[in-house]
Design goal:
Number of helices: 6
Mean pLDDT: 80
Largest sheet: 2 strands, antiparallel
Radius of gyration: 20 Å
Order of helices and strands: HHHEHHHE
Distance between the termini: 36 Å
Amino acid sequence: MSTDQPPPGPDEPRDRDSSDPFAKQPRANGSPYGDHGDHGDREDHTAGPEPYAGMPPLAHLGRRLIARIIDALLIGIPVGLVVTAIAGGYDPIEGNARSTTVTLVYVLVYFLYEGLMLTRDGQTVGKKAMKIRVAMLENGGPPVGQAGWVRAGVYALPEIVPCCGFLFWLINVLWCTWDRPYRQCLHDKVAKTLVVSAVP
């Protein structure tokens, strides 16, 4: 039995590189956004607006997760060190004023960091490391101006709200695991963005 396979056709996904564990994302009909195109005369209102025609493939969820971890550590470690130096340490489990202050400082610093980075070129340090970027659904450009700040705000600021803020944050970040066709989190839906590969 021959193991030779024919070369991929023009409709095959471009990123099936076996050396990249994050490149194996199935896409129906060769589209990076799944099967949501023209269905004859039937008009589909559930898929939302079509993405920019030249949009790169969607970023793999694994890359998005690692990018978030990198960014969280990049902000969390310095904030923790500064608070420890100033306040003499804190216990994040205890709900005292000191731990609340640390959470507030972290959230605000993260909001400013992400807002500034996204409005500049659509990438945080973590996203640059993972070769992904945030793009506007309508034109593929970076979320400059209000869109970038709205996206950063919906992601970071709800954590300030006691109890239900963390619950909203959790639902928000998990939303992309079942969202179709664009794998958007809630902050993407509000800002009308999606996360795509930064590699041509």
